[in-house]
Amino acid sequence: MKLARNCLRSNHFSALVLLLLYIVPLCSCIYQDEVGKINWHKRLIGKAKSVIPDATRHDIYYCSTEKNILASVNSTTGNIEWRKFFQNDKILFTKNIGNNLFTISGHNSQNFQLWNSKTGKLIWEASNNKPIGKYADAFIEKDRKNIVATTATDVFRFDLSTGELKWKTSLTNPTLSLGKVIVEKDHVYAIGDLSKPKTILLTNQLKLSDGTLIKSKEIAENQSLDSLNLAILHNHDSNSFIIWRDIDNIVWFIHKLGIDNPDFVLFHAKLFHIELTPDDMIGSVLFSINIENLAPKIGFLYKSDSQGKMIVADLTDKNGNPHFEKSFEFNSNDPKFGRNRISISDDGYLSSLSMSKNNKFKYSVFDLSKKGKIVLNGQSILNDPEHYGYLESIYKIGSKESPKLFIQTVDGLACGIKSSSFSEKSVELSTSKPLWCRDEVLSSTTDQTFLDLNLATTSSDKPLFDENSNLKSNGLIYNSIFNYINRLYTHCNEFISFINQFISPRNDKLADSSHQISEVFGFGKLSIFVSRYGRITALDASNGNNIWSIQLNNLLKEASSTTLPSSLYLRTFKVFATKPVSNLNNPPTIVVAGRNRDKNTVIVTINGLTGQIIDEQTADLKYRATKVLETNIIDSQTEQKILLIVRKEVIANKESKDNSETKNQDKSKKGNAKNEKAKKNDDKSNENKIDNSKINEKLIVEVWPRTKSAIAAVSKFNDKLYIVMGDKKGSTELKGYKLDGFSEVTDRELKVHASVPAREVWNMDFGVDEMQVIGTSYPSTDMRVSSIGRVLDSRKVLYKYLNPNTMIVLAGKTGQETGLRSLIIDRVSGRVLKAVDHESAIVNDLANREPLVTMQDNWAAYYFWSQRSSNRSLNNEGDNKKESLGEPHGDYKLVSLEMFESNNADEQLTKENFSSYTKIDPFTYIETFILKNSVLSMGIASSRNGITTQGLVLGNKGSPLSIIPHLQINPRRDRQQIGADNLAGQKSDYLADYEPVILESRENLLSYDLDLVGNSVIKTSATRLESTIVVLSYGIDVFCSKASPSGKFDVLSTQFSKVNLIATMSVLFIAGALSFPFVRRKVTKEIWK
Length: 1089
Description:
Blueprint: H1 2-9, H2 13-23, E1 38-42, E2 48-53, E3 60-65, E4 69-74, E5 80-85, E6 90-97, E7 100-106, E8 110-116, E9 122-128, E10 136-140, E11 146-151, E12 154-159, E13 165-170, E14 176-184, E15 187-194, E16 200-207, E17 213-221, E18 230-233, E19 241-245, E20 252-256, E21 264-266, H3 268-272, H4 278-282, E22 285-289, E23 297-304, E24 307-318, E25 321-332, E26 342-344, E27 349-355, E28 360-367, E29 373-381, E30 391-398, E31 403-409, E32 413-418, E33 436-439, E34 445-452, H5 476-503, E35 525-531, E36 535-540, E37 546-551, H6 552-555, E38 571-579, E39 589-595, E40 601-607, E41 619-620, E42 627-634, E43 641-650, H7 660-683, E44 697-704, H8 708-715, E45 722-725, E46 733-739, E47 743-746, E48 749-752, E49 755-765, E50 771-777, E51 789-791, E52 797-799, E53 806-813, E54 818-826, E55 832-842, E56 852-856, E57 859-865, E58 873-877, E59 880-884, E60 892-900, E61 923-930, E62 935-941, E63 951-956, E64 962-965, E65 1017-1022, E66 1029-1034, E67 1038-1043, H9 1058-1088
Parallel strand pairs: 55-59
Antiparallel strand pairs: 1-67, 2-3, 3-4, 4-5, 6-7, 7-8, 8-9, 10-11, 11-12, 12-13, 14-15, 15-16, 16-17, 18-19, 19-20, 20-21, 22-23, 23-24, 24-25, 26-27, 27-28, 28-29, 30-31, 31-32, 32-33, 34-35, 35-36, 36-37, 38-39, 39-40, 40-41, 42-43, 43-44, 44-49, 45-46, 46-49, 47-48, 50-53, 51-52, 53-54, ...
C-alpha cells in the first residue's frame, strides 16, 4: 500500500499518463489492409436517347443511351437492374416486344438481337457482315410471329421466336441508306435516303413472302428520313402515307405507298383546319405518331404570337384519299417548345414538357386513344437548378394507378418524379425532391484533373496543421505532440460522424447531396471532371462523394438572359489545376476552357474548394483558340500556373495584291519553283527544315492569366519556349514552333508583349508516307526522377536518357489494313531519336482496335493488335535507325522501350546544362510482350518522388483493371537481342529471364470482379505516401483505387499486432511506475553518502 501511495503521489505519474496517450494514436496509422482496396465505383449508363416503359412491370423502364448501353432501370428507386454494353456498336433501334427487347446495332457488322427484358440475357442473335447504316428500323407483322428489319441497303425477315432468317434482300444502290420499313398486307415497303447531287427519298416495294423487289420510286426531293418536315404514317389495318414539306414552301405533299400517281397536294388550312401566316408555316415541324391498335396520327408544331403550339390530327383513308381530322391542340408559353420536349410512349400517351426560367417546368400527359384527354397535368421544380443544365426531355413511365415521369437535363441528370393518379385537375407549383436522380454527366467527361489539397487548410474548425505542415517552431518534440493531438482529435470527429450516420442517414441518390472533403492522411485530393455539356464536377478522390458541382451555362453572365438559349452556350473540353491549396485565404484554383455559340474560346477560373467562379479571371477571348497548354511557370500575382493559349491567324499572300494578268503569268513559274523546293525538302527530310516563306497562316500565343506579372514571368524564358502542333488523331503533319520573346529592349526601353508569334522550326510530314497520327504521349510536366540511372549488380550504372522534351508518336498507314510506326521525337529540335515499324499492326479499325501509347521519364509503352508474323529486320536510314519488328505469335501486343545514354555501363554523355540541339542519340532497349486480353486504355503510375517502381496500368476489355510492374515488362530482360556485346556476362539488377506472355497476378488486379464499362481513359496521381498512387478510370463508369507497385513499405502490415503493442506498452508502463520509488530511494541514498 505504501508503494502504491508513493506511485500516486509521484509528480511524474501524470507525465507517464500523458506519454501513454501520446503513443496510443500510433495505432491509428494507415495499415496495409486499408490501402489498395476498392475505394469507389460509380456505375453509369450515359445520357438516355430513348426511354421505353415496360408493358407488364410498371416499376421498370428500359433505355438506350448515347454510350451504346441498353439498360433496365427501376422507376421507383432509380437503381440499374441490368445493363448491356455494346462497345463500339451503335444502337440504332430498340423496341419492346412483350417480355423481350429487340435491338439493331453494329459498326462494321449489322447485328439483330432479341433480349429477355427481365434478365437481360440474349435469346437470339443474327449478324450480317456489312457495315451498319445511318438508320435502322423494324416492323412486327400482325400475327406477331415474324419481324421485318432494315438498315443500310438490306432488308431482313426473321422468325421472332427463334431468329431464323426467312429471307434477305440486298438493294444494289450503294448510296442508299434504308431507315424505315412497313409491312402492309402482302407487301413490304423499305424507305431510305438516296444520295444524289441532292438527297431524295426512295421507296422500295417487296413481296412479303420471299423479299423479291417489285418496284422502286423516288419521291420528296431534298428530304431525308431525319428531316423535321417529314412524317410517315402507317398501321396494320390502313394504307400508309408519306407527308413532307419542301424547305421555304408552305405546300404539303402526300404520297400513298404502293401507288405511283397521283401525289396529293394540301395546304395548312385543309391539313389542320387552321389559318397560319407564311412565316408560321415555314417554321413548323411535323412528326409521326404510330401506335399499335390506334389510327395513325400526325403531330404539328409551330409558333404563333410568341407561343409554342401543337396540333394532333387523325389520318383516315376515304376512298383512297387521305383525310385529316384534328384530334386536339395544346398551347405552351415556352418560346423554345419543340420536338425534343415531346415524347410518345408505346402504350398511347403523349407527354409534353414546357420550361421557364430557373428550370421550372410544367408537364402534361395526353391520352391519344381518347382524343388527347389530359390525364396528368402539373408543375414542379428541381432542387438547386443552377447546378444542372436546362430540362431537355420527358417520358411517361409507370402505370395509370402510379404514374411517374422521367425527365432529363441536357447535361445528363435523369430524375424520376412521382405524380398523382391520372386526372384532369391541375397541380399547383410545388418544390419537392424527386424520387431519385441519376447524374450521368460523368459519362460524358471530356477531361479530368486532380487537385491536390493540404487537408489541414480546408477546414476552419480545427488548427491549421497536420503531419506535413510547416509549424513555426524549432522544436521537433513540440511539432510531434501537436501533430498527434490533431490526429487524435480527427479520430474523435470521425467516430462522432460514424455515430451520426445512424442517427440521421443521408440519401446519396438525391441530386443535391454534398459532402465534406475526406481527411485521410496522404490522400487529400479532388478529382475534377469536365463534361462537354458545360458541367464541372468535383469528387473526393478518397470516397467519390460529390463535393461541388456547377453548370457554367447557368452561372456565366452571357447565359443569364430572360429566355433560355436556343443551344448550349458553352461546351467545355479542357481543365487545368493551376494552384493547389495553400491556405484558406488563398484558395486553390482550376481553369476550364470551352467554346461558346460563336465558336470563341472562353476561359473560366473556379475556386477549387467551393466551385465559385472567379469573375476577374474569367473572359471570352473573342477568338477560337487552337490549343491551350500548361506550363510550370508561376504568376506571382495570382500564384497560378501560367497557360499558353495558341490561335491561328491567316496571312494573305502577297500575290493577291498584284493585278490578275501578272498573277496568271507568275502562277506557273511559282508553281514550278514550289515543286522544285518541295523536291529538295523531300531529299532533306531528315533535317526536317521548311521554307517559312510558304506559310499562309501564323500562330499567335498569349499567356493566361492576362496580368503583367504573368508576362514578366514568361519573359524570363525568352527563346526557350517551344510548342508542337498537329499532335491530334488523324493529323498528317507534325510541326514544331519556337515562341518569340515576350519582352525586348528597343531604344534602351523594355517593351512587353501580351502575345507573340510562333515561328515554325521543324516539320514532319506523314502524308508523304501515306500515314496519319494515331496517338501521342508526353512525359509529365511535373516529372520527378529519384535516380538518374539503373544500378547493375556489378555496382555499375546505366544512365537514363532524361530528356524532358521527348514525345512518342504512333502513326498508321492510311487506306491499308496494317502498318504502324512509332517514333521518339525531340519536340524542340524535331530530331527523330528512335523509329520502329510494325508491319503487322492493324490500323484500319481504330474504333475497335485502336493502338494506345503512354510515356513517362525515359520509359514508354504502346499497345496494338497484330496479325501473326515472325520476321525481324534492322535497317539504317541516314542518321536514324528504323527498326522493323515482327512480333511473336499472338494478337494483343505490348511494346516496352527504355532509353539510356549509352549501352556501356558508367558512361554518362549529357552535360549539366542539357540542350536538345546536342546530338546525343540515346540507346534504346525495346521488347515486345503478349497480353491475354485486348486493352481499352493505359497509363503509367509514378509516385510523388519517383522512388516507387513504376507500373503500367491497363484497362482491359472484359477483365479487371490491372497494373503491371515495370520489372515484369522491363525491355532489358532479353539479353540476346541488343546490347549483348557490351553487357555480356553482367547479370544486371537481378532481372528475370524474358517471358513473352504477361501473366497478371491476382494482387495486381485493381478492380477485382467489378463490372467496369467503358474504361477508355486512365489517369494516375501521386499521393503523400510514397508507396501509393491513386488510379482513376473513366469513360462511362468511374472507378478509383490505389496501387502500390513496390509494396506498401511506408504503412504497417496486416500482421502487425496492435494488441501485443498495447500489452507491451502497458507492461512497460506498470514496470516503470513500480520501479520509480526504488530508483528514487536509491538516488536519495547516494546523495546522503
